[in-house]
Amino acid sequence: MHTAELALSLLIVVIIVVSLLSNVLVLICFLYSAEIRKQVPGLFILNLTFCNLLLSASSMPLTLLGVLSNVHPGGQIFCQVVGFLDTFLTTNSMLSMAALSIDRWVAVVFPLSYHSRIRHRDAVIALAYTWVHSLSFSVAPACLSWVGYHQLYASCTLCNGRAVNAKTQFAVYTVVLHSLTFLLVSVVLCVTYLKVLKVARFHCKRIDVITMQTILLLVDIHPSVRQRCLEEQKRRRQRATRKISTFIGTFVVCFTPYVITRIVELFVTEPFNPYWGVLCKSLVYSKAACDPFVYSLLRHQYRKTCSDIINRLLKHSSPNNYGHQQENGKIGRAKENVKDGEVEARPTN
């Protein structure tokens, strides 16, 4: 095994482990917290989590086997099913990210009318569209036998047709697929999150003006306090830019190399470096490992839920806590017995 194959195999293993653990943790938080379940974005996050989990359990292990063995893993029918899931889950996850960005845009730009504009019924309709959209682009290649093992990506995915007419149809399908998924979602993410950033910067400026006015009024304020206020202003502006850059940047970095390779592959006859194809596919897989942190686990609500779950597990597993509970129970029963004795000994009229 070459060093590049070993490095790619280790990368895929790390992606699988991180993706499974992080997405399972998001699912546990969703089931544990009633407050998360009540929120409309929770439906989009739940759909995205299921897509990432299925992708981690189906396509990623087969790609790992393809890199290690350099042969077609599994039978033809099994590979077609995995290839169908690969297209469906990837498309569905992209559209879920677009739905989350639209939800954030409405929440920030129209905060007072958010609950009337975005309801659970609207979220269900949006999810139904993502499923119909994804199924449409997944069923078509399966019916036309455009799904199989692709040597360049070492995975079961979309494959080029053999006949000239089939190649033309496949090229049209590929361009339309990536235009209505990757390109569409990229435009939606950029437009919505940049508007969110604009509103966030506007609010930061208002807060900065109020802060500076307060500092000017407090003449006897200590220089260190003033310096901390100025540093907090700078951190506030950087925090908003960093979050928006993370949302857009992870999507672009993870999907752009794979999409460009797919498009160029249609018009170039010379073979690509197989390690480049597997690396592009691994970047797509890495998005499934990044999404739980980008959209869920780094938020305060999910961190609090994780902390509550850990504290609850520690309390149940601690023997000292169990003995303390037994001691409290004995004291409580003794108090009840004393009260009962006082009632019995109390003279009646």
Automatic annotation (TrEMBL):
Alphabetical keyword list: Cell membrane, Disulfide bond, G-protein coupled receptor, Membrane, Receptor, Transducer, Transmembrane, Transmembrane helix
User: Segment Disordered: which positions?
Assistant: 318-349
Domain called G-protein coupled receptors family 1 profile: residue spans: 22-295
Concerning SUPFAM superfamilies, the annotation shows: Family A G protein-coupled receptor-like (SSF81321)
Q: Bias regions of kind Polar residues — which residues?
A: 318-328
Q: Domain of life here?
A: Eukaryota
Principal localization reads membrane
Q: Does the keyword Metal-binding apply?
A: no
Cited Gene3D superfamilies: Rhodopsin 7-helix transmembrane proteins (1.20.1070.10)
- TM annotation in the entry: 6-32, 44-68, 126-150, 170-196, 244-264
Q: Which residue positions does the secretion signal occupy?
A: none
Entry's localization field: Cell membrane
Gene Ontology CC terms, in alphabetical order? plasma membrane
Q: How does the UniProt record describe the way this protein sits in the membrane?
A: Multi-pass membrane protein
Biological process annotations from GO: adenylate cyclase-activating G protein-coupled receptor signaling pathway
Q: Can you name one GO molecular function term for this protein? A: G protein-coupled receptor activity
Question: What InterPro entries does this protein's entry cite?
Answer: GPC_Orphan_Receptors, GPCR_Rhodpsn, GPCR_Rhodpsn_7TM, GPR26/78-like
Query: Which intervals carry biased composition (Basic and acidic residues)?
Result: 333-349
**A Pfam family annotated for this UniProt entry:** 7tm_1
PANTHER family named in the record: G-PROTEIN COUPLED RECEPTOR, G-PROTEIN COUPLED RECEPTOR 26
Q: What does this protein do?
A: Orphan receptor. Displays a significant level of constitutive activity. Its effect is mediated by G(s)-alpha protein that stimulate adenylate cyclase, resulting in an elevation of intracellular cAMP.
Mind telling me what this protein is named? G-protein coupled receptor 26
Source organism per UniProt: Cyprinus carpio (Common carp)
